Structure formats: C-alpha cells, structure tokens
Amino acid sequence: RPKEEVDFLMGLLSRYLDQELSKLKENKIRFNMIGCLADLPPEIQKKIRRNMTETEKFDKLVLTLALSYSGRVEIVEACRKIAEKVKKKELDPQDINEAALQDALYTSNLPDPDLLIRTSGELRVSNFLLWQISYAEIYVTEKLWPDFEKEDFHQAIEAYQKALEINPRDID
What we know:
Strand order of the largest sheet: 1-2
Order of helices and strands: HHEHEHHEEH
C-alpha cells in the first residue's frame, strides 16, 4: 500500500486503540492481535501491548485484530516452531500432526471461525486464516467493509443459520 494510505490507517488504529480500551474493559472483552507486531510502528506496538495487558484476564469475549497478518507466513512460522521443537528433541517427528500445527499457529488459543464474512464481492480468501477457515461457512456481500453495517451483519448471520439447516442427506 502507498505510504500515505498506511500512515492514515495507522492513525485510525492509534485512535481506536486509545478510544476503545475503556469499552473493552467495561465489557470484559479481551483484546488480542495476530500478525507480525514487529512490523508495526513502535507507538502502535506499545498501544497494542498495553491493550492486551490491560484486558488479558477477561474471558467474556475476545476481540482479535489481524494486523500485518499473512496466513502463509503464519503457517511457515508454525512450521519453524515445530522444527525448533524437533531440533531440541522436545517433539518427535512422528508426533507432528494437525494438533501440533494448530498449537503452533498465532490463533492456537482461539476457536476456528464458523463464519467468514467476505466484503467487496471478492470470491477469494486473500491469504486470511488459511488453516483456520477450512470448515467455515463463507458469506460474500458486495458491500465494501467501510459501508458494512449492523443490518448487513444480521443478514450474514441469517444466511449462516439457513446454511446450517441444510441436511446433506436431503440432497439427491
């Protein structure tokens, strides 16, 4: 992205991290981040760490932001973690399985998503949660993310509920 766009987005993120912290705490919502924290500006890193620390004991809900995130990089880093465990003889190669990989992902402490809402009409997942969305329902809307409103969210949930009602045995 162009520097001007990145600077604008980082400014928005900075304000959000400051403004929403009190709401997160008031509602007992844990703040989480996945991605490469080190790629973000130092001021943003500091605010993210602050918000994570100040909400780490909450478990009512978890808000996870994907920042400087790549699904491919996440899988590569998980493989590196596993390789280090094998190298240190903490893990036998025969014990490498789906669970071992899942435990090495950024999202190891989170459930896999049940629903992925894809805005802008795009029919691709854009390198997002590649491992985690393997069984998620995907809802596609033409709306752009900045225009996506509460009613649009309700429509996505209704479509998800309808998808769950379909019994594969009912299909000829």
